[in-house]
Amino acid sequence: MVYCTSCGSENADGTRFCTKCGATLNMSAAESGRGSSGGLGDAASSSPPSSSSGQAADSGPLGAETIYSPPSSSATSESGSSYNPYATPNDPYGSSPYGAQPSSTPGGSSSYADPAYSSGGGAPYSMQQMGQGGGGGLFAIGEKRDPVMIIVFGLLTCGIYMLYWWYMIITESKNALGREDINPAMELVLALVTCGIYGIYLYYKYPKLFLDMQQRVGLPQNDMSTLCLVLAFCGPLGLLVPYLIQTELNKIWDAAGAR
What we know:
Blueprint: E1 2-3, E2 10-11, H1 27-46, E3 51-52, E4 55-56, E5 75-76, E6 82-83, H2 147-156, H3 160-177, H4 184-193, H5 197-217, H6 225-232, H7 240-255
Antiparallel strand pairs: 1-2, 3-4, 5-6
Helix pairs in contact: 2-3, 2-7, 3-4, 3-5, 4-5, 5-6, 5-7, 6-7
């Protein structure tokens, strides 16, 4: 088919003049058009199908849609090992992942070792009783007093200083043993209400408590509770009871590390 360049009408092959407008037809352009179209057809038919790694291209009819198949997420390399193109590459420096604590430094010690927590027992600080090194197992250490001066002050104050002294040694014994059941004020009130009868019982009660204190500080036990109770009924000899009690307490405080 030959097209007229003037009016664009179609003419049969081999026609030299346009049947509509009479213009001369360009036969060379028609022949060259046929040759170029034939060459394209030959090239299309002679082109071999191409293939790529992991997929095959199938040439279909003209205008057919080619389906693209993505490469597999895990391919095998030439050496035979599995290769994943989407995997995160390894850290070339060998550092730990984010959030992980390094186990040790190049020197061999822990990077984040805290000396306060590195001691044995699993606790940062050792909880000890007061005086474990100097107090000898007691929770508190009392005051050393002169036994002779206690008797002198008791006589000069007509026994008022003795009430103060009893309150102090009861409080110190309570704190040293950690006894919450002892009430110094109540002990003195009972002694006054009973006209001194409960006070005689105190001469027996607290020398018994001293046995536990002597054991804690490593002293031999000296049970003088019976002796103090007997002296309390012997009139003026009862003044020796504060002397004996304070002397024994001074020994306990010395053994416990009192200064």
